[in-house]
Every structure is written in structure tokens, then in C-alpha cells.
Amino acid sequence: MSEAIGTVAASTEQAGREAHRAHPGAAVYVIVAVFLAALTAMELTVFYVSALKAVLVPVLLILAAAKFAMVAMFYMHLRYDSWLLSGVLIFPLIIAALLLISLLLLFAYLAHHIG
Amino acid sequence: MAAQPKPLPTESASYLRGGGLLGWLETVDHKRIAVLYGASALVFMVIGGIEAMLIRVQLWSPGNGFLSAAVYNQIFTMHGTTMIFLVVMPLELGAFGNFLIPLHIGARDVAFPRINALSYWLFLTGAIFLHLGWLWGGLPNAGWFGYANLTERYFSPGLNLDYWVVGLLILGVSTVLGGLNFFVTIVMMRARGMTYMRMPMFAWAILVSSVLILIAFPPLTVGLIFLLMDRFFGTHFYVVAYGATPILWQHLFWLFGHPEVYVMALPAFGMISEIVPVFARKPLFGYPMMAYSLSLIAFLSYGVWGHHMFATGMGPVADSAFAITSMLIAIPTGIKIFSWIATVWGGSLRMTAAFYFALGMILEFTIGGLSGVMHASAPVDLQQTDSYFVVAHFHYVLFGGAMFAIIGAVYYWWPKITGRMLDERLGKLQFWLTVIGFNGTFFPMHFLGLWGMPRRIYTYGAGLGWTDLNRLETVAAFILGLAFLVMYVNLVRSAAAGAEAPADPWDGRTLEWSIASPPPSYNFARMSEVRGRDAFWVQKYGRAGSRGVAMFMAGQAPPAPESERAAPAQPVHMPAPSIFPLMIALGAGVMGAGLIIGWWRLIMIGAGAAILAAIGIGFEYPAWGEEPRDPESAAPGGVDVRKVGVWAFLGSECVFFASLISTYIVYKSRNAGGPGASILEIPLTSFSTFVLLMSSLLMVLALAATQRGDRVWERIWLVGVAVFGLVFLGGQAYEFTRFYREGLALQTDLFGQSFYTLVGFHGAHVAIGVLWLSVLAVAAFTGKLGKSRALSVELAGLYWHFVDVVWIVIFTLVYLMQQVTVA
After folding, report:
1. How far is B688 from chain A (nearest CA, A)?
2. d(CA A92, CA B737)
3. Residues 6+ apart with CB under 8 A from B232
4. Could you tell me if B522 and B6 are in contact, meaning their C-beta atoms sit under 8 angstroms apart?
């Protein structure tokens, strides 16, 4: 049995090593950080430049989604890990987005028609 | 403390034996935890049943003074709350789910045994809070749905609803932890060969229910947090006078409340799907469609909450959308009904008590389903809403559906759980009493409702024509009570002197029947590879199911289970018992008590005890943070169960924050008397955002250092992340202080309270992350981290990055879109 434990432990360790090998190195992490900082700077630009007020909402949402995706894919390693983990995040994320949109629409109707 | 592999005993030792009282207090065995859940729920069932009897006695005659209006409100509130949260859910998920899921999928325990124990102790703590009103201050009294703003301090000044809100919050945490555990267990710990399409349907049902729990409970938690803040901290989330809308509570509650109906119904479907094939001696008809329809029911159930709110005036578009989804859900539900009927059709039926209740469930639940479709139509629903028609409907669903299934499950699985048989004659007597009592109590309510009798009234006038049917219902309710008395007598008699149960008394189809009754603590002496659907049936008879039926018809006994013949000679690792889950729950209880009596030191003591106990669990493992894997149940694909657990938790957190953010956006422009969103300062927050983003960089660098065994940089980066987190928190503290000085307090207006709550909860998450990282840093400096413990750093990192991405969303929606209004 101890042999069996050893075999499984070794295979798990090997799988772990393979998974870690698949993770990016420090250079990629730093590049991602630079992108995150740049995207944040772009958000602030959109916020402060009055000429961009008309596209404020869509641009900010896109930039936030891009930052969200970069952190999830590279720092949380979803790009390198099992699809199962992506599914475990994406399904509730979709539910959360639908919940938010539904509630906002329902309350917008309430505000405009009932007060 | 350390859990070492130990040899199996030569004889199968029952999981029920040994350990004494302490053994039960610190147990992490899923079967013992199941028994604790079951025993607790059976006690609460007596309490909830007595409450039902009191309701019926009060409604016996017009103008009855048996109960006052105030006491009646408490009794019907507690009846609903008790039956839903303390009886049906704990029996289905806590008791049967816990006992059966590892056995059904061929595992030795659940994925997180200590969290499983914590779920139970939190459940008991929450249940005690709900019942404290018997002793002091009165029971909760605003209905199980607790509609705002009846629940506000102004309208309910007593302790009643304080108990309710604290109790439900604790119960919610317990349920989410339980759902998370089941999800990870079923996804990650199935035996070799147990594909999704070979899983018992009960495991499917628990899997889908668990997903529902993870996404449906967060809105309730948020709604309860708002209520708690209104009652204890002077906010006004539901008070119209301050510009708020009580409809918010209804949305948050029913976003939970309708999926909750399916959290209770789906395990019942699973139970019936196990019982019917065994006693019809046929495989479940249309297995794939049954599995798909379970999933579809769950998905649709999240989009039907509005049909509880047609009367609130959501508008024709929303009404139509909710009506369509509510009607659609009847399709997968109908598939299940027809599949059960088709399974029974042409079967070699054995009319046991369990099968009686299964057949009864199919009939009674169908009646409840049909009246449910009526509610899906908005114009019809407007006539029925808040009438006794609704009471009839949901009792046909929850009693006719869930409770019939639970009682059937008791008769079916009791021999496996206790090793004793129940009296079949008493079981059949109970069935007929239940059918008569149940239909006599609830069917006339359809008529009373259509005749205009409102629900929740404590009395009625003599000239309304409701008296005769109410009397019939009361008599029938006592027959129903008698039926339960028969069941309790049967249980006690069986436990005391019931006939010994063989391993496979029903010629079962699933793996739990392949091991002794009651099972040994390690479940399976040898983990066989699953070779087909109905794993044990295939093991016994081969793939040709008809061979088993032919043997039955010829009066031959089935062959002995393979695992019973297997020699249990190998050592097996089982999780070590732990007292810390109980201590965490005690800490939570002390916090709740401190909150209710307004003693802040008590809250701090409780929080401190809970945190220390949680850290204690971390240090309890034999190799600090690394539970030795049981080679028999090693996770497939090299993905650790803890990683899946953390991701599932984060998924649930997404819905939690979505509920908070939605409320903020709805309330942000309601800033009467306060400075509003223009007070938000972008430069400072931009700096904080940058710090948090960069802390994520340090976090991945810490993980990379740990993975390559670089202890120096591992320590530096970990400390760096914690420091950056503290800087972020410092910025938030400065911001809050400045806002307060400029006139924006928590209670100032709806903007203030929704802003502080959203950003404050994110800050609390950051603080927990800093605490977690500090523990890791201490471990790193004491040499207990390192390359072999990289997963511990990775898990903390996942949480930390999630806190970061939530802030990315908050920074955009709250700060950068401060001038954008939606509602």
C-alpha cells in the first residue's frame, strides 16, 4: 500500500510539476502588470477627458473587462489550468452579470413608471 | 492529531461504534455527520409539526381565541422557517446527501471533511438562534419570507427578527459550505469508471442542487446583511421614508427563494429516481433525459423568481418573461414524471413502504406541479396570490414532493444507515394515514383560496363560508400528525430492537448496498472500478439487467457483493477527527449573541475564537496544509480538490458581489441630504487601485518563488503582498474618515449606506486576505512553506487575485462611472 501511496504521490507531484512548468515566468507576469497599469491609465484618461464622455460607459466597461480577463487568465492561471476551473468561474460570472442586468432593468422600470 | 494510514480492522467495524461523546463532537466522518443532521432535523420536525397543529387548532372555528394574533404570527413564521431550513434541507442534503454521496460515487469521504463538520455545527448554531425566542423575547414573526419593511426595527422592535436574521445568516453560511463540499466531492472524487452518465441520479440531483446553492444563496445573504444593518446599524435599505424600496428585499429574497424550492425538490427527485427502479426491478427509464432535465430545471429556476412578484407591478415585459420561463420549467419537470411512470410500467413491482411513498410522491407532486403552472400565468396568479390557494400549491410541492420522498428515503435507506430494518406494516399504515391526512389538510385549501381566504390570517369571520373546510383541514392535520407519530414509533422500535439488516436488503442497484449495514468507517474495503450505470447491479448480475429479474422471479438470492468477499488487508488513510469546526461554530454563535445584545467585546471574542480555530485547522494537518491523498481516491488530472473548492467559492462570491453592486447602482442617485457620488475622490482611489493591482503581481512572483524553491524571495514577495494590502486598507480607512468628516455617514442616505456596504465588504475581503497572507508569511519564515507547499500559496493567491478583480469592477462602476445613473 505504501508503494501505492508513493506511486500516486509521485505521479501527483509530476502532474504538479507539469502544471507549474506550464505557468508563465516572471517576465510574463511583469508584462501583464504593465498592461494593467496602462489600461488603468486609459480608464483615467477616459474619465477626465470631457470629449470622451459620450463613450464613457462602453469604453470603461471594455477596459475593466480586459483587466479582469488578464488577471484571471495570467495571474489566476486560467489560461494554463484545467478547463474545469474556467467553467467553475465563468458560469457563476454569467449568472452574476444576468442578475445585475435584470435587477437594473427591473428597477429602471420601477423608477420610471411607478416612482 | 496527525492522521496516519492505519490498517483496516479484520472485521467491518460500524461507523456508529466507538469514540464516545467526544468522538461525535469532533467527528469528520460524513456518515456520522449525516446522522447528526438527521437526528437534529427529526427533532425540529417535531417542533415544526407541533407548530402546524397549533395553526390548525387556531383556524378550527371563526373568531377563535386559542392563539393571539401576535403568537399566531410567530407560530406560522417558525413553522415555515423550521420546515424549510431545519427539516427538509438538512434531511435531504445534510443527512441523506452526506451519508450517500461518497457511497454512491465510490469515495471514502467528502472532499473537505472538516468543512463538512463545520457546516453541521453552523447549522445547529443557526437553528438554536431561530429558537432562542422560545426562551426570551419572542419568536420571529414576519413570515418565512420576512417581507420588508415589516421586518424593520420600527415595525418589529423586539428581538424576534434579530434572532431570525442572525440565525438565517449562519444557516446560509452552513448551506453554502455544504453545497461547495458536495460540488467538489462529486466533480472530483468519483471512483474509477464512474462517469457522469453512470452516476446515480441522486448524485446528479445533489450536484445540481449544490450549484444552485452556490449561486442562489448569495442574494439572500446580501438581503439579510442589509436587513441586519437596518436593524443594528441604523441604515434604511428597505424604508420607503428614506427613499428606499422594499421591493429590493423581494427581489433578493426570491432570487434565492425560487431556486431554493428546487434545492428542496431536486434531491427529492433524486431519491425517487433511486427508489423506483429498485422496487420496479427495472433501470431508470430515460436516464440521460432525467439528468439533462435536472440541469435544465436548475438553470430555469434561476430565471423565474419574478412570478412570486407579479402583484408588485414589474411591467408587462418582465411579467411576460417570468411567465414564459415559469411555464417552460414544467417541461423538464414533466419529463421526470413520465420517466418515473415509464420505469414503473411493466416492472416486477415489490410493494414496500418505500415504494408506496415513492408512488405517492409522483401523484401528489404532480398535483402541486399543475397548480404551479397556473401561477405562471400573471393574470391568474393575481387572483390567487396571498390566498390559501398558494398555501395548497406549495404544500403539494414541498410536502407532496419533498416530504413524501424523504419518508420513502427513510424506509429505503434506514437499514443501511442503522443496520436495522423498519417495520413494513407500520410503514404502510403511515403511508395511508399520510395520504388521507395530507390530502384532507391541503386539498380543500385550493377551494378556500379561490373563495377568497387570505393566507397568514389568524382568524376569520363566521359568515364567510370557510368554517366547514377549515374544520375538515384541522381534523385531517391531526391524522397527518398521527402518521408522523407512527413513523417515530417505528424508528424508535427499530433502533431499539429491529431485525438486523443485511448488506443488500432490497437487491439494490447502487454501490452503498455493496458494503455492510451499517457501513464501516472507511466505506469501501476495496475500490472497484465501476463498469456501468447501476454500478452494483452490474457488479452482481453483469450488464444484462434481466438476469437479475429472472433470478428474482425464480426465487434465487443474488450473489454476494464483491466488496464483501474482498479481504480488507490494506492500510487506508482516513481524515483525523477535529474539534476546531465545533469551535468555529461556537465562535460564530458568540458573535451572533454579542450582536443581538449589543456587546461589542463579545463580538470580538467570538470573532477571535473563530479565526484562531480556523487557523488551527490549517495547522492540524500532519504536514501543515497538505492532507495526504488517499491513493484510492486521487483526483483525476492532477487538479487538487482544494483548488476546485476555492474556485467554486470564488464563483459564489461573484454572485454575492453582483447583488451588492446592483443595490449600489440602484441606490446611488438617492442621496437626499448627503453629498452623493461626487464626493468620491479619483486620484486617491487610483493610487489604491494601482497598489492593489501591483500586489497581484507580487503575489504571482511569490508563488513562482515558492514553486522554484527560492525561500528568500518567497518571504520577500509574501510580505510585500501583505504590506500592499495594508496600504490599500489604509487608503480606504483614510477615504472613509474623510467622507465621514464631510458629512457622509453610514446612515446619511441610501448612497452612503450602499457605498459603505459595498466598498466595506470588499475591504473586509482584503483584510481576510492580509490575514491569510500573514499566516503564510509566518509559515515561510519558520520554514514550513517551501516548494512542496506551493499549493498553499497558490490557493491564497487565487483568493487575493479575486479580491483584485472585484476591485477592478468596483473602481469602474462606483468611482469612474460616478455620474452615470440607471434607476
Report:
1. 12
2. 34
3. B162, B595, B598
4. no
CA neighbours closer than 13 Å in the CB half-sphere of residue B525: 23
Q: pLDDT for B147-179, tens place per residue? A: 998 999 999 999 999 999 999 999 999 999 999
Restricting to B residues 154-213, those with a Cβ less than 8 Å away from any Cβ of A are 187, 211
* Residue B709 forms contact with A (CB below 8 Å): no
Of B721, B728, B730, B722, nearest in space to B697 by CA: B721
Which candidate in B237, B707, B808 is best for mutational testing of the A interface (most A CBs within 10 A)?
B808
B638: which chain A residues are within 8 Å (Cβ-Cβ)? Answer: 12, 15-16, 18-19
Report CA torsion sign: B286, B288, B291, B296: negative
**Nearest partner of B758 among A48, A75, A100, A43, judged by Cα:** A100
Residues 6+ apart with CB under 8 A from B144: B77, B80, B81, B84
Give A 41-80 residues with CB within 8 A of chain B: 43-44, 46-47, 56-57, 60-61, 63-64, 67-68, 71-72, 74-76
Neighbours of B732 (CB within 10 A): 19
Q: How does DSSP assign B204-242, residue by residue?
A: HHHHHHHHHHHHHHHHHHHHHHHHHHHHHH---TT-GGG
pLDDT one-digit tens code per residue, B170-211: 999 999 999 999 999 999 999 999 999 999 999 999 999 999
Residue B13 CB-density burial (10 A; 0-12 exposed, 13-18 middle, 19+ buried): middle
Evaluate whether A80 touches B635 at the Cβ level (below 8 Å): no
